[in-house]
DNA sequence: CATCCTATGGTACGATGTACGAGTCAACCA
DNA sequence: TGGTTGACTCGTACATCGTACCATAGGATG
């Protein structure tokens, strides 16, 4: 029944028999490919946001017909999946040798993760509802190893991983969605609206001071304090 | 320019001059109202998910014409906002007297928050991208007061609030989106796919054991440990 | 030359959010 | 009493979306 869904699409893996290419590319678009589609989708998402990506616009940018895309990708969801994973690669902590600094490794990876997502704000809203791609699993694997090295008990390992995941996801999604258009303005207005008031929040300027990066780092520190054995 | 956006809509606050109602309601639908629309929208969202809410379906359920809705709400986004906030009320910790147990109060509120959202899984994906409604601000206010009472320094207060917010949001969004259709299956397949492997994750069965509630509580405990002064 | 596979894209369909304006009905004032 | 006004309802129409279906082109292979 469900024989449609096979990953066997788009194999132009053939030798292109390089022979000789014409002296001058005739200015036309390069051929469509999964990679070119994904790269252009990321451009479009960066420029126009989640709703800005439509198959027609994507085809326009690629200089192709809309339906040609469907030869290379299954559907729009597929485009989202591919764009998302393409944005979440991680090269690992700077030094190549076996690291002693598990805490530094974790912080480095998580801050890089957050930064990658904030560079492409749409990705934060997308990640939780898509299946886990290889790049995310790779990050979780690294997290898991570092925490083990840090002496976290096996029984606590999953909780620790999820806690860090939750923290990063929550912080990033919130941040990415918070300053989209005029949200600061809206929140401020809502806060200062006469009628109901929120004195403690207002006093601490919770919604106004915006050292997001510092807050992220500091809160992550608290969480790691709590997770560290003893 | 932006004179459209005024909250002055939908005031049928008039006295209806009760006089006498007919002996028998003639079985017809009750009149449209903001409240009825929101309640029905929540029903629909619960039943069909985020994409299941369309203005046409909503009108069908209400036994009205589509465009009649627009007298009571500004647009579909408005419906989302109202539905979201209507689902996030909080009555406060059980006992009425001044509580000594700040940690218990916080845990109670946050677990109730998470439970409210999981009862309506669409709400988790919606919350971060909508402006903060009064019910959310109320929860933040309560959080802020409890943490102050716990002795968290003013300088750390915002970080502590955001950390807890992040944790709850991340945990809930992940949870709400994780077991929608056959996601477990997909994740498992992906994990056990020959080729690339993730040995540590696999060994710890990170994606397979599913005591979400326990993990949430335990991780929250770790975070509060880290946040507690000294 | 015939046949096949890869790749492209035009047309068309059903669904969506909502602008516009015409309709109904009760309350009010003359 | 009759006219006017406001609150409220809703049919029609339109632009835009994802994508099913199908016709086509061109190179590789027989």
Labels describing this entry:
homodimer; 230 residues; mainly alpha; 58% helix; globular; disordered N terminus; DNA-binding
Notes on the structure:
The structure is a homodimer. Chain A has about 230 residues and is mainly alpha-helical. The first copy, chain A, contains eleven helices and no strands. Chain A has helices at about 35-50, 55-60, 70, 75-85, 100-120, 120-125, 135-150, 155-180, 185-190, 200-205, 210-225. The N and C termini of chain A lie far apart (about 55 Å). Chain B binds a DNA duplex (30 and 30 nucleotides) through helix 2 and helix 3.
Q: Please state the average pLDDT score of chain A.
A: 81
Model regions low in confidence, pLDDT < 50 over at least 5 residues of chain A:
1-27
Largest interface (CB within 8 Å) is between: A-B, 59 and 59 residues
The overall strand count of chain A is 0
Strand content of chain A: under 5%
What percent of the residues of chain A sit in helical stretches (DSSP H or I)? 55-70%
Structural shape of chain A = globular
The oligomeric state of the chains shown is homodimer
The major beta sheet of chain A can be summarized as: none
């Amino acid at each position: 029944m469900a024989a449609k869904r096979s990953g066997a699409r788009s194999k132009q893996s053939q030798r292109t028999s390089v022979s000789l290419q014409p002296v001058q590319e005739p200015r036309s678009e390069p051929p469509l490919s999964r990679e070119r589609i994904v790269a252009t989708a990321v451009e479009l998402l960066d420029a126009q946001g989640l709703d800005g990506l439509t198959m027609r616009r994507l085809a326009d940018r690629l200089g192709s017909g809309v339906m040609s895309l469907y030869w290379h990708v299954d559907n729009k969801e597929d485009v989202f999946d591919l764009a998302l994973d393409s944005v979440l690669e991680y090269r690992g902590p700077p030094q190549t040798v076996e690291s002693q600094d598990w805490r530094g490794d974790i912080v480095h990876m998580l801050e890089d993760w957050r930064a990658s997502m904030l560079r492409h704000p749409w990705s934060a809203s997308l990640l939780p509802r898509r299946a886990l791609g290889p790049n995310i699993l790779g990050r979780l694997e690294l997290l898991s190893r570092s925490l083990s090295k840090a002496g976290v008990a096996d029984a606590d390992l999953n909780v620790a991983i999820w806690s860090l995941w939750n923290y990063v996801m929550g912080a990033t999604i919130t941040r990415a969605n918070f300053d989209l258009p005029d949200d600061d303005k809206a929140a401020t207005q809502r806060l200062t609206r006469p009628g109901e008031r929120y004195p403690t929040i207002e006093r601490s300027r919770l919604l106004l001071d915006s050292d997001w990066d510092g807050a992220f780092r500091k809160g992550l520190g608290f969480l790691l304090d709590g997770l560290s054995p003893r």
